[in-house]
């Protein structure tokens, strides 16, 4: 090997030696990021795990705060507390109506904003994002003022109206994002083949935006069944599941609350798994 070849080989070896610590550092940084991610997930899941665990607590009284043994009794006595059952049914009905109404209205708004340019579209976007970013206590107080001014009796339907008003923006944003990536040439091909406007929407457009519609509608359902602040303003004499739990904290939360929360969480996980599995099959 001549002098030039040695001079060229020397820097290569030195560069290789310098790269190794960098690769090793990147490896450890990646492992640290993975560990940190799992710690965050464990921290977020900890309250849910405690809720699931205390659904099996063999407590002797109404206070479900200390572990006293394992039992499946509360799953058999899930509906033993009548007012708690009524509150859960109210929450499920309100969330279902909110999902349907906000799903339809949000889909139409998202389709209009994602597809067309019209006078007032900028103002509509501003109002929509303002509703998303607005504090719940402000929205609850404003809705209460509106209902009182219009002499609307507070109760079941004022809760439904309020939940639709704050969740429709989330549906519209989700659907709009889906509409903006839809290939318009497919709709034009359907028109060229003789499909009417309604047939094109029903057979072509809606199936393509359905993932966004479904995601937005499920988000509206989750926001509705979870809401406490706005519901507390406009509920009147109607008690929902979150309101019942808040009132029960003064005397003790029964194990049935943990069981109901566990079942709601399990249904949400099941829907997420089915959605992920369906998306994976659709991708293949």
From TrEMBL:
<feature type="region of interest" description="Disordered">
    <location>
        <begin position="1"/>
        <end position="20"/>
    </location>
</feature>
<protein>
    <submittedName>
        <fullName>Spermidine/putrescine transport system permease protein</fullName>
    </submittedName>
</protein>
<dbReference type="GO" id="GO:0055085">
    <property type="term" value="P:transmembrane transport"/>
</dbReference>
<feature type="transmembrane region" description="Helical">
    <location>
        <begin position="92"/>
        <end position="114"/>
    </location>
</feature>
<feature type="transmembrane region" description="Helical">
    <location>
        <begin position="259"/>
        <end position="278"/>
    </location>
</feature>
<keyword id="KW-0812">Transmembrane</keyword>
<feature type="transmembrane region" description="Helical">
    <location>
        <begin position="201"/>
        <end position="223"/>
    </location>
</feature>
<feature type="transmembrane region" description="Helical">
    <location>
        <begin position="154"/>
        <end position="175"/>
    </location>
</feature>
<dbReference type="InterPro" id="IPR035906">
    <property type="entry name" value="MetI-like_sf"/>
</dbReference>
<dbReference type="InterPro" id="IPR000515">
    <property type="entry name" value="MetI-like"/>
</dbReference>
<keyword id="KW-0472">Membrane</keyword>
<feature type="transmembrane region" description="Helical">
    <location>
        <begin position="126"/>
        <end position="148"/>
    </location>
</feature>
<keyword id="KW-1003">Cell membrane</keyword>
<feature type="transmembrane region" description="Helical">
    <location>
        <begin position="33"/>
        <end position="56"/>
    </location>
</feature>
<keyword id="KW-1133">Transmembrane helix</keyword>
<dbReference type="GO" id="GO:0005886">
    <property type="term" value="C:plasma membrane"/>
</dbReference>
<dbReference type="Pfam" id="PF00528">
    <property type="entry name" value="BPD_transp_1"/>
</dbReference>
<comment type="similarity">
    <text>Belongs to the binding-protein-dependent transport system permease family. CysTW subfamily.</text>
</comment>
<dbReference type="InterPro" id="IPR051789">
    <property type="entry name" value="Bact_Polyamine_Transport"/>
</dbReference>
<feature type="domain" description="ABC transmembrane type-1">
    <location>
        <begin position="88"/>
        <end position="275"/>
    </location>
</feature>
<keyword id="KW-0813">Transport</keyword>
């Amino acid at each position: 090997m001549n002098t030039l070849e040695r001079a060229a080989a020397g820097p290569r070896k030195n560069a290789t030696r310098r790269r190794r610590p960098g690769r090793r550092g990147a490896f450890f940084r990646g492992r640290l990021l993975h560990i940190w991610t799992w710690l965050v997930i464990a921290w977020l899941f900890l309250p849910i795990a405690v809720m699931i665990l205390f659904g099996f607590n063999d407590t002797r009284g109404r206070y479900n705060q200390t572990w006293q043994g394992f039992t499946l009794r509360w799953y058999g006595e899930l509906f033993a507390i009548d007012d708690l059952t009524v509150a859960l049914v109210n929450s499920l009905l309100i969330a279902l109506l909110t999902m349907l109404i906000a799903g339809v209205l949000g889909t139409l708004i998202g389709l209009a904003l994602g597809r067309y340019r019209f006078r007032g579209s900028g103002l509509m976007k501003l109002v929509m994002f303002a509703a998303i970013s607005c504090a719940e206590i402000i929205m609850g107080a404003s809705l209460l003022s509106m209902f009182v001014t219009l002499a609307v009796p507070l109760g079941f339907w004022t809760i439904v109206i309020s939940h639709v008003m704050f969740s429709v923006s989330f549906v519209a944003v989700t659907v709009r994002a889906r509409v903006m990536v839809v290939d318009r040439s497919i709709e034009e091909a359907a028109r060229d083949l003789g499909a009417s406007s309604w047939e094109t929407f029903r057979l072509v457009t809606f199936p393509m935006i359905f993932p966004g519609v479904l995601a937005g509608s499920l988000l509206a359902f989750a926001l509705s069944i979870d809401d406490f602040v706005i519901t507390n303003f406009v509920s009147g004499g109607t008690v929902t599941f979150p309101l019942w739990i808040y009132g029960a904290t003064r005397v003790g939360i029964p194990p049935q609350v943990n069981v109901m929360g566990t079942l709601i969480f399990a249904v949400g996980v099941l829907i997420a798994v089915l959605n992920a599995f369906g998306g994976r099959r659709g991708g293949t």
